[in-house]
Amino acid sequence: MNELPAAENWLHDKLANDGEVASIVGGRIYKYALPQSPLYPLITYSLASDSDFQGLGTVRILTRPLYLVKVISRGAPSSLVNLAADLIDEIIGKTTKDIFISTAGDMFAVSSRREAAVQFTERDPTVVGTIYFHLGGLYRLELFSLGRKVMDISDSVSLNDSVAVS
Amino acid sequence: MSATLNSRIPEVKRRMHLSSEVLIHRAANRQVAEYQQTAPRDTGLMADTTHTEPEEPTGRDSSHYRVDAVSPQEYAPLVEFGTVKMEARPRFLPAYENSKRQLHAEAKSVTETVLKGGVIPIATVGVRRSATQAHSPTVGAIRKVR
User: Fold this and answer.
1) Is B88 within 8 Å of A48 when comparing Cβ atoms?
2) Widest CA span of chain B, in angstroms?
3) Residue ranges of the domains in chain A?
C-alpha cells in the first residue's frame, strides 16, 4: 500500500473543511501545480521529502512524509493571508492523532507537526512590480497503518412480499 | 601494594569530538554531492555552485559544530519550493534527509568504535565535493557561466 495519496486527501480535506480557511481562500486548495490564471490568495501543498521507519523483516512501522504547505498571495500579504498561514499551522501543525480511511479502505492514524517555516517572495518577470508572497511551512506527517480495512458491502435485500386478502 | 587508575574518559571525549566533526563534514559533503547529481539542470550553475561552508574545526568541543550546505543562487529556493508558474522540484531537502539518516547510522557505529579504543575515520574529509566532478567543481561552474 502507498500511504501518500491517502495522506494528501487527508491534508486537503483537513484544510477544505475548515470554515475560516474556506472564507479566505474559497475552494482554492491545490496539489502540486496551480491552474492557469488562478485567483489569489490560494493554498498549495506538495511533497518535499519522504522516509520510512522500518521494523523487523518487511514491517513498515511509519511513513514520515514532509509536506510543503503554503499560502500564496499576489502582492504584499494582507492580514487575512497571514491568518490563513496561522490557520494552516493550527490545523496541520498541531494534529496529534487523526484517523482516516484511504480510498482502498485502509485505516491510518496520522500526526503532524511543523519542522520549519517557509517565507519568500517571487517577482513576476512579465509584469513589472508584481510580486507573489509565499508563506507557510514544512510539515512532517507521521502515518501508520492501523492494520484494519473498511469494506463497503453494497448488498441489499428487497422485501416486496405482499399478501392479498380477498 | 599500590595501584594507579588512569582515566580514559578525557581521551575518549577528545576522540568523540573529533569524530563528530569528521562525520558532520562528511554528511554535508554527501548532501552536496547528491544534490549536484539530482538537482534540475539548465546551465548547471545552481547545482555546481552548491558547496559546504564549515566552521573551523576545533577538535575540542563539537557540541555546536556546524557545516552549512549552501546553494547560493537566488533562484534556488524558487526551484526547491515552487513558484506560481512552476511546481516545486525539491532536491535539496531529500538530499539533506538522506544524508542525515546516514549520519545517524554512522554516528552509532563510530561511537561504538571509539568507545572500544578504535581509530576514527579522518581520511575521507573534504576529499571531493561531487561524485560527478572529481576535480574543482567551482572552476567548472565559472567556465560554464562565461
Assistant:
1) yes
2) 82
3) 4-149
Q: Which amino acid is at A136?
A: G
Q: List the grid coordinates of B29.
A: 559533503
As a CATH number, domain A4-149 is 3.30.2000
What element of type H or E holds B54?
Answer: strand B51-54
Residue spans of the domains in chain B: they are 9-57+65-119+132-145
Query: Do the Cβ atoms of A46 and B82 come within 8 Å?
Result: yes
pLDDT digits (tens, 9 = 90+) for B88-106: 999 999 999 999 999 998 8
DSSP annotation string for A88-147: HHHHTTEEEEEEEE-TT-EEEEEEEEEEEEEEEEEE-TTSTT-EEEEEEEEEEEEEEEEE
- Best B71, B79, B84 residue to mutate vs chain A (most A CBs within 10 Å): B84
ipTM tops the 0.90 cut: no
> What DSSP character marks residue B122?
-
The nearest CA of chain B is from the CA of A124 a distance in Å of 9
Instruction: Report the candidate in A41, A15, A49, A48 with the shortest Cα–Cα distance to residue A134.
Output: A41
Q: pTM of this prediction? A: 0.79
